[in-house]
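INTERNAL AUDIT FORM
Audit reference: QA-55
Scope: verify that the stored structure record matches its stored sequence.
Auditor: D.O.
Record contents follow.
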Amino acid sequence: MTKKNLKTLPTTSGIYLFYNSKKELIYVGKATNLKSRVRSYFSGKRTSRPIEQMIDQVKNIKTIQTDSTLEAIILEGNYIKKYRPKYNIDWKDDKSWNYIVITDEKFPRVLTIRQHEADSNKHAKLMFGPYPGLKVKEMMRLLQKLFYISTCSEKNTKPCFYHQLGQCLGVCNGEISSTEYKKRVIAPLTKFLRGNKKSLIKDLEKKMKLVSKQENFEEAARLRNQIKNLNKIQDIALLNKSFVKTEIKKQGSTIRIEGYDISNLGSVHKVGSMVVFENGHSKKQDYRKFNIKKVIGQSDVDCLAEVLERRLKHPEWPYPDVILVDGGKPQVNKTKAILKQNLLKIPVVGIAKGSDRKKNEFIFARSIKSDKWVKANQKLLIQVRDEAHRFAIVFNRSKRKIK
């Protein structure tokens, strides 16, 4: 493909490869929309930036489509590592590039490091990358969910938060051995990071059929969900540079809860609220207000649906570990349905209340493996519910100019 054929480029995610007149690969890049990204190089006014030197040399363009931005990132890293394109190297400070490292330990850790840290990391066994311009925290968050990577210590005696959500196989409480962890977590992850997703999925399908015949239905269900998630990877704004940098840490992970409530005065003045708690503390800079625009009449469930659908149009907002809704089964079921439509698997908890708001009945989706975490964190969940209610009421009153 030459520069004259830019209109025929695909609009999917993937990588683009620029070649010079000698058929040498001089630059490789990634994109969520190949057509838009590549065309941007050849539009607009020319400047004296170094990029112009490369653009003038481009004589041929090739693209490779991927199923997701995550796979485009991995493929780009593999190409840079293999071919060392001139302008990738010249334009970038490769010492600041991000790499993923798998350590050589009893329960291997999965870390992100910079190039200059690689030599000093004595535990590093496998290194993948480089991954330029990447939101490493979001990538690790996604890989953790796709491959059940444990972030807890084997010295723990109690199940961790992610074990309660079915996202940790039990390193924390001794449910899984080192050998099984390497086999079920590290081996699939390694294959994926080497760019062999199709082969990996075939392996997982064979394993799923085998454990199903052995009547290990819990493991078969886990593999089924993993295959589904790999086929429909939900990227989390991996290339967005304006992400939130101030995260509160606890046990090496950020536990984020989003709480939702609807406030209305009859069939008018309908509004919605979204509040955010991270590790037990409100994060008010992430709160959001919603004016209900489409719902006619009075329906809290439909209003909640509109709020959630609009929220999910903002992947630059970090996705939560748990969603809390002020309401009962109708609200929980509607939330689950919207998440499913968006190929998201996030645990949902609802708190049903009486007219005097003194009743607290917890309803949670099946995606929460156990109700132990919910029971252990009832006070926090009620606090999130009450804060979402308060925030919605304040917003409603401000619209009605009631003080």
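Auditor finding: record pair retrieved intact. Confidence is low (pLDDT under 50) at residues 240-253.
Action required: none
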